[in-house]
Records
---
Amino acid sequence: MPTVRHDTQSVSFKIVYCGTPLCGKTTNIQQIHARLDPAGRSDLVSLSTARDRTLFFDFLSVEAAAVPGYRTSFHLYTVPGQITYNATLQLVLRQADGIVFVADSQLDRQRDNLQAFQNLEANLRLNGSSIDRLPVVLQYNKRDLPNAAPVEYLEYLLNNRERRFISFEADARSGRNVLATLNAVSQGVLGQFQQRLYPTPAAEPAAPEREAKMAMSEA
Ligand SMILES: Nc1nc2c(ncn2[C@@H]2O[C@H](COP(=O)(O)OP(=O)(O)OP(=O)(O)O)[C@@H](O)[C@H]2O)c(=O)[nH]1
Ligand SMILES: [Mg+2]
């Protein structure tokens, strides 16, 4: 659920980056941090081991002109991919408004992708949420590597349900489609927020979504 504060006229949404170990979650957040205007984002907070494995989470807050009259921010979290930190995953997933599932495109990581996706589904269910109700964006990362599986295979594996998720091919290390992924999930989150506020078809979501997109273009 978004946090709305009428006293300070602010609203914040929580977006969580999930995926198998070393798929590139932290790299996404680092690229967003590097590419956005410092005036519109916080410092990057990373709680990691000496070897750069995420231990607890990474956190970055990004501002966008999205909800008229309210300061709007998107709180981006990553979770550690390692299964030993499942309790952390569950904790960070709590109250998530949107999910980015980062998949590692390398052929030999497909079983791990699937396992991470099923684990995400199970943890959302334990939190009383569901992957079918949340805005979800799939990111097929590491497309630059020679052993990347065909995108059709990744789609078959991870995106074969009734409600198809938006998906992007990305190379987080170079930054390709990192902001496009963030824009897509932010728009999904805003769309769902507006739908809750104005559940009739008369809702007019176009303008704030456009503003949010503009606000997240590169610095
Ligand atoms: N070639 C290539 N390497 C990438 C890409 N994205 C991330 N990497 C590399 O993959 C390794 C792991 O990236 P991280 O961003 O730390 O992965 P993570 O998902 O945060 O890992 P955990 O927090 O341990 O689960 C690093 O060496 C990155 O530089 C990519 O698109 N292409
Ligand atoms: Mg990490």
---
Amino acid sequence: MFGSLIVDIKHLRRVFGQFATGVTVIVGLDSRGEKSAFTATSFNTVSLEPPLAVFSVSKKGQICSHLLQCETFIVNVLAEHQADLSDLFGRLAAPEDRVQALHDMEHEWGARVPDALAAMRCVPFLTQDIGNHMLFVVRVVEAVFEEGHKPLVFFSSRYQAIQGLIVPECPDVEKIS
Ligand SMILES: Cc1cc2nc3c(=O)[nH]c(=O)nc-3n(C[C@H](O)[C@H](O)[C@H](O)COP(=O)(O)O)c2cc1C
């Protein structure tokens, strides 16, 4: 359906890894209040009007089937000091540690990472089964950010920090759509 694989997967992973991203922890909440959380670097923005964002989830794990039942997603953009949290929800971790971390996230939205760079409360807009992932397009209904924090960056399979500015000011940033 998608044609033959012309790029070696290991090589492609390294090439994709050259695209630096922020790091998010996304919490899904279903109607019974059940939560699941996972680390995602696939988060990206889609549209301002309407306010849409996207992330993709591997269909392999259990998390995907739960997320398909969720009516709310809390996207937490991690700050520089939160690599441990990214690992907790992104790599093999003791289930009790994840339960404790989710407990620490209790918030009127349902869950929120304390001290994150930004957080968005989202609702489902569209899902698309694609390749070995499920694509979730979500509508942002509430959004906040913390002034002065620096982002956690993921580049070349490693956590990195932003070192400094290349261009001191971007004068027309408001005009970029
Ligand atoms: C930095 C980082 C980014 C990740 N990004 C994604 C992603 O965008 N989509 C995805 O399905 N999994 C991603 N993962 C893996 C999931 O977070 C992980 O498989 C999920 O938490 C399930 O964990 P488990 O298999 O131990 O239960 C990422 C992991 C890390 C460490």
